[in-house]
Amino acid sequence: KAGVTQTPRYLIKTRGQQVTLSCSPISGHRSVSWYQQTPGQGLQFLFEYFSETQRNKGNFPGRFSGRQFSNSRSEMNVSTLELGDSALYLCASSLKENSPLHFGNGTRLTVT
Amino acid sequence: GENVEQHPSTLSVQEGDSAVIKCTYSDSASNYFPWYKQELGKGPQLIIDIRSNVGEKKDQRIAVTLNKTAKHFSLHITETQPEDSAVYFCAASLYTGNQFYFGTGTSLTVIP
Fold first, then answer.
1. Is A30 part of the contact surface with chain B (CB cutoff 8 Å)?
2. In whole angstroms, what is the distance from residue B21 CA to residue B111 CA?
3. Do A105 and B93 count as a contact with CB atoms less than 8 A apart?
4. Which end of chain B has fewer surrounding CB within 10 Å, N or C?
């Protein structure tokens, strides 16, 4: 079974721009979560989608948004990028609630 | 919300020795506790997990123990090998929702 696929692997953007990251979950997994990983803050929950509906949202500003499509693929968008948005963005899928998260290898975003 | 603390932040052991990583959590409603291993350039990978109705779980050289009363859980790796060198994260999840709270990570180095 193919794992979680995230594209692109690396992104370099300028302050003020916006960016879209993509995630394809494991086949059959309907829950997709997004996490931000930084050296200082560790892994921070952004949001979780299940069957195209956002079920949970972490403590991030409204510049961070996401969506899920009918095939369970998900995208997250960050608008008006700030230097502090530089991080590894991880997508994870799971079969159901309270079950193991399966992570992709992440998208490394650098904001200059 | 839930708060997960993890210690130590770095750990060096000689090959063949044991390694122990400890985590505490704050919300007694948390009932699922996975452990992840993250290698350089990759996303976290699940190595073992435990649910609140179980006190201990073993998988070959890896074991996890849970003390619900004290609200702490630990990862034990025996007969460590150089390939065990990585960053390890503990996490906690409440029964409702699919939001995980992660510890800040332990960088384990196994010295050959």
1. no
2. 17
3. no
4. C
Look at strands B72-77 and B19-25 and give their pairing.
Answer: antiparallel
Give the E-state strand segments of chain A in sequence order.
5-7, 10-13, 19-24, 31-38, 42-50, 53-57, 64-68, 74-78, 87-94, 102-103, 107-111
pLDDT at A98 over 90: no
Q: Is B44 within 8 Å of chain A by CB?
A: yes
Q: Which of B14, B51, B37 is nearest to B88 (CA)?
A: B37
Give pLDDT tens digits for B59-105.
999 999 999 999 999 999 999 999 999 999 999 998 666 889 999 99
Instruction: Note whether A98 contacts B49, CB cutoff 8 Å.
Output: no
> How far, in Å, CA of B112 to CA of B109, rounded?
10
Answer for the pair B105, B7: CB distance below 8 angstroms, yes or no.
no
Q: Are A91 and A34 in contact (CB under 8 A)?
A: yes
Backbone angles phi, psi at B82, to 5 degrees: -55, -35
Evaluate if residue A41 carries a pLDDT over 90: no
Task: Point out the residue among A45, A50, A100 whose CB comes nearest to the CB of B34.
Answer: A100
